[in-house]
Design brief:
five-stranded mixed β-sheet; alpha/beta; 2 domains; disordered C terminus; Conserved hypothetical protein from pyrococcus furiosus pfu- 392566-001, ParB domain; single chain; 12 helices; 274 residues; two-stranded parallel sheet
């Protein structure tokens, strides 16, 4: 006896109504919305999937049927792996097809994917959440844009006036609050004129911890001048960068807080942070 492989009827027999239908779609019909929220295809990952492909454990791509077209929300590497195994030719693929999703809902769906999918970088996840209309993500982006900066969503490469360490920046934004976050970024931009190395994770952490700890107790003009004399490119380790910022802090504030308990305590706290 040959069993019929019908996932939809199988689910119905248990009174389960999944939010998708299992449909076989030709791969040439599938669209990757990379300009909106999808990440680029990583060729090495595709080759790895193709080399180790197992039909029994492979996940079905998740596809959104919207405006008469099929958009791949999750599983583009699996699709490309199947095509590679097929000699580079398109082929029919069993997919989980969702209907009724808006583009914004697709983006949020993509941002929250888990399981066997390749982990999303912080930048890719942020971009998807912004497209999806996530309010905290949009506020974080807006705060960064207000100081004249943008994010490198899909690259860790350093570039002018762009933050690549998105995960670090988001953590600091949530930890410090928008006011300290923006004030610190303005100081960094003023000191190093948007140079790529000034947006390393260690620089962001050092400056923001200093601004938070000594907020209102230092001259911005003196701090900008002192930071500008530090060449971040030559300090290729986090330790060197952070200790340089610590030394600047001590020089700026020593005269004002000569041998006070509060200054000694804050100095100790700052050292533990770096």
């Amino acid at each position: 006896m040959r069993l019929k492989n019908d996932t939809n009827n199988f689910a119905a027999s248990f009174n389960i109504t999944p939010p998708y239908q299992m449909l076989v779609l030709h791969s040439k019909m599938l669209i990757y919305p990379r300009e909106l929220y999808q990440r680029g295809v990583q060729r090495k990952r595709v080759e790895m999937i193709a080399a180790d492909f197992n039909e029994y454990v492979a996940n079905e791509p998740k596809v959104s049927f919207r405006n008469g077209k099929y958009y791949v929300v999750d599983g583009q590497h699996t699709i490309e792996g199947r095509i590679l195994r097929n000699g580079g030719k398109d082929l029919p693929i069993l997919c989980k097809v969702y209907t009724g999703l808006t583009m914004e809902q697709e983006a949020l769906f993509f941002a929250e994917q888990n399981g066997h999918s390749a982990p999303l970088t912080a930048g890719i996840k942020l971009r998807a959440k912004v497209v999806g209309g996530d309010a905290p993500s949009k506020a974080f982006l807006a705060a960064t844009n207000r100081v004249g900066l943008a994010f490198n969503y899909d690259s860790l490469q350093l570039s002018d006036y762009r933050i690549s360490c998105v995960g670090t920046a988001l953590k600091l934004y949530n930890q410090m609050g928008e006011k300290i976050y923006c004030e610190s970024l303005r100081l960094i931009v003023a000191a190093w004129e948007g140079k790529p190395d000034s947006f390393r994770a260690s620089v962001l952490r050092g400056v923001m911890h200093f601004v938070e700890l000594y907020h209102g107790e230092f001259s911005e003009e003196r701090l900008i001048r002192a930071l500008g004399n530090v060449h971040t490119k030559s300090m290729w380790t986090s330790t060197l960068i952070l200790h340089s910022i610590w030394r600047i802090a001590m020089n700026l504030l020593a005269d004002k807080h000569k041998n006070t308990v509060d200054f000694d305590l804050k100095s100790t706290v700052f050292v533990t942070l770096i």
